[in-house]
Amino acid sequence: IYGRGGDAADAAFDAIVALTTSLDIPASTMANALATQVAAGALGATTAFVVFGALSPHGSPVNAAVAGLISGGSITVAALDAAVDAGQYSASNAIAVLGSVVPGAAPGLRAEALAEVQALVSETPALASQALPIFMGLAVSGDHALRLVGREGIEALAAVAPGVGSAAFLQLLSYMPVP
Question: Mean pLDDT, to the nearest integer, of 146-172?
């Protein structure tokens, strides 16, 4: 009903949020139902982010659904960026989503997701500590190219938020062999 728009859309939106907020329907169930509609093409990204944004205070289940849609190609990183710019989805939740997308993403999607992480951190430096684990995971990868990407990402985060550089250094020390 919500996806079709019209006079019933506002009532459907209110019902979705009310049922999930009151915990009558778990956030994971509602987020997955919305994701199914998006993946099927019945609900567009812009419309979906209005609902995902309202449900985003529930955190992980909603972010996991959005990450699955991005990884599966049903929603783009650009659509996530537009939702953040429109105030429909928080930058912090977007970082969490992209952090879930990066590890298993194909190189093109990974590059796009990492560029978005950098852009979000540049706009809001306080997000640098939340973004650091994404780049740390790459920096300690067995793949040389990913290690370079991770290192460059850490350096970029440190340039935006200087305290992140020391945190990254301390975390990297735990990966160094002890003689």
Answer: 85
